[in-house]
Amino acid sequence: MRWTQAFIPTLKEDPADAEISSHKLMVRAGLVRKLTSGVYTHLPLGLRAIQKVERIVREEMDRTGALETLLPILHPCELWKESGRWDVYGKELMRPVDRHGRECALGPTHEEVITDLVRREVRSYRELPVTFYQIQTKFRDEVRPRFGVVRSREFIMKDAYSFHEDEKSLRETYKVMHGAYTRIFERCGLKFAPVHADSGAIGGDVTHEFMVLAGAGESEVVSCGCGYSATLERGETAPEKPSGKGVELKPLEKVHTPGLKTVEEVAKFLKTEPSSLIKTLLYEAEGETVAALIPGDRELNEAKLRRVLKVDLMTMCEAEAIEKATGGPLGFSGPVGLEKMRLVADPRIKNVKNFVVGANEADYHHVNANLERDFKVNQFADLVVAEERDPCVKCGKPVSISRGIEVGQIFELGSKYSEKMGAMFLGQDGKERPFVMGCYGIGITRTVAAVIEQNHDSNGIIWPLSVAPYQMEVLPVNVNDETIRTTAERLYEELTGMGFEVLLDDRDQRPGFKFKDADLVGLPLRVVVGEKAMAEGKVEIHVRRTGETMRASTDEAPGRIKTLIEEGKVS
Ligand SMILES: [Zn+2]
Questions:
Q1: Which of 132-151 are b and which e, b meaning 16 or more Cβ less than 10 Å from the residue's Cβ?
Q2: Distance, CA 138 to ligand 1 centroid (Å)?
């Protein structure tokens, strides 16, 4: 491909709305352009990288025996109502209305559609297991689209769904998919880690996210030297050893705390630490009002609470609901006197004696509240957001928290969807039972961004050979010099003839400008045809990743390049 015909609109300046390197570089190197918030056009160069990732994904999916298909993007709302997700999915689900006033969904994921297909077409255990996959555009109406294509509202995804007669068969496929994902991300040149994750609105118990570790990632990962790792939503840490032993329990007292609602305000007023307060947070969980108790200096992890309560839909109570449930206004809730309500507490509150808690009355708190004596808890469970240096749940050593980009996730769904949607097959014993399901996603556009996030320097992208839009660039420093131009043309033809994907920078521009663009676009190899080396009948071969430069005669250059690639010197 000739640069003059390739449409690669490079930019000198970073886009104003870009916060992370991959976003800046994708725009500057002419891979994408923003259409509107969270929606991007993929330009020719960017599309080539996407297609490289897709090819790797297809090869590895086909190798597992999964069957490629293409499901509709537009879904009737009835299917989503059958699965119960019409209500659960919330505002992220885009819901267009057709000309007949019928509500629809733009697919953010396809469990309903594929389950509908399988319940109509698959009858017997003899047809199982079967796995379908597709590569397609998905829609999720993110509250705050950011980081370019990393968190966008429209994106390309590979999603796969497996159907089984039992859990054993599901676990086998899950393992196969885990292996396929590992190969896919390795082949894309990524450093990544599979971590335990929360299943969110998809459902299911066993799930892993494949996380590309990157300082600018949008997800957080809890990890420990012992090998424990999990997403922040899932990440458990152990409570510190109880320290309140031997502390005298003082009598419960009600104190006037006028207008003081936040933990900090109350702690300051009562001359105590935020950790001696207990936050009482009320949630509406599928018809039941539940109170969650956590130490005043910690944040509640809603994903953990949702798992403990075993509900899909859970919302924080508004002021009115709090008043109805506790008799007191928002900001003054406490566990004393809430016997009728289910109280779930983080075990860390066991470490503290003589707590400060809300008194369920405007402008009043209780001081010296104590567990068991003044209130009882129905259930203890890890409920807080893990923090750096919390003790590891496996080994007790301090954990660390790092950032990553989630590029894939695999789930053991079980029969959640098949039961709700009545998707049954005839088992070996002649009895009808629901399909056991798994689902497996990869963010294709996000993977390209993750590759750039992990492979760049201050000058631009450093493409891994496997996903580079072109493998190499031939760069004549001056196209007006007859010898240079014809040599570059000859090399371009020869390398292309050898089966390489080559970009020829045939633009009539200053050498400095072309070198800057070459670094920015970041193809793995560059062949520079310049005056100095040409005087000796040579060209320069430059490896983008290592900065290594070598000279070769114009006749030897193509052979040298072939050897470099075959010997793995360019990766
Ligand atoms: Zn550990």
A1: bbbbbebbbbbeebbbbbbb
A2: 37
CA 192 to centroid of ligand 1, rounded, Å = 19
**How far is ligand 1, taken at its centre, from the CA of residue 229, in Å?**
9
Please write the tens of the pLDDT for every residue from 339-389.
889 999 999 998 888 999 999 999 999 999 999 999 999 999 999 999 998
CATH superfamily of 13-71+109-231+401-452: Bira Bifunctional Protein; Domain 2 (3.30.930.10)
> For the ranges 8-12, 13-17, 240-244, which has the lowest average pLDDT?
240-244
Ligand 1 center to 294 CA (angstroms): 23
Residue ranges covered by each domain of the chain: 13-71+109-231+401-452, 253-380, 470-566
List Cβ neighbours of 78 (8 Å cut-off, separation of 6 or more). Answer: none
**CA 28 to CA 244: how far, in whole Å?**
57
Q: What's the gap in Å between 389 CA and the centre of ligand 1?
A: 11
For 470-566, CATH number out of 3.30.70.20, 3.40.50.800, 3.40.605.10, 3.40.50.150 equals 3.40.50.800
Q: How far is the CA of 235 from the centre of ligand 1 (A)?
A: 12
Least confident of 224-238, 341-355, 401-415, 514-528: 224-238
